[in-house]
Specification:
This protein has 97 residues and is mostly beta strands. It is 11% helix and 47% strand. The mean pLDDT is 88.
Length: 97
């Protein structure tokens, strides 16, 4: 289980979501629609703000990107890398095995 956000992706979140140092960006699990994932029928959602306690996190430029305890299971068998693509952020799921 691992989670990382590249510096370039963090810059994208700053511009797109207006977040800055001291802010929280939470990734959460959705059943329908959103960012495709390695889990069939599950998607990622993204919201600004702190809800619950961060169980898995990466702090980049003072911004805490995280999954709370309720959604941490999602990465049990995967490593999620949030990186900058050519125009927008990409979410790369690699097997942790």
């Amino acid at each position: 289980m691992a989670f990382s956000v590249s510096k370039e992706a963090a810059e994208w979140f700053k511009e797109e979501l207006g977040v800055g140092q001291g802010d929280y960006v939470r990734f959460f699990i959705k059943l329908y629609g959103g960012i495709p994932t390695a889990h069939p029928d599950y998607y990622l959602g993204v919201t600004v703000g702190k809800e619950g306690e961060p169980a898995i996190k990466d702090v980049v430029d003072g911004i805490t990107f995280y999954f709370n305890a309720d959604d941490a299971w999602f990465l049990n068998e995967y490593q999620l890398k949030v990186v900058m693509g050519s125009d927008e952020v990409e979410y790369i799921f690699d097997s942790a095995k």
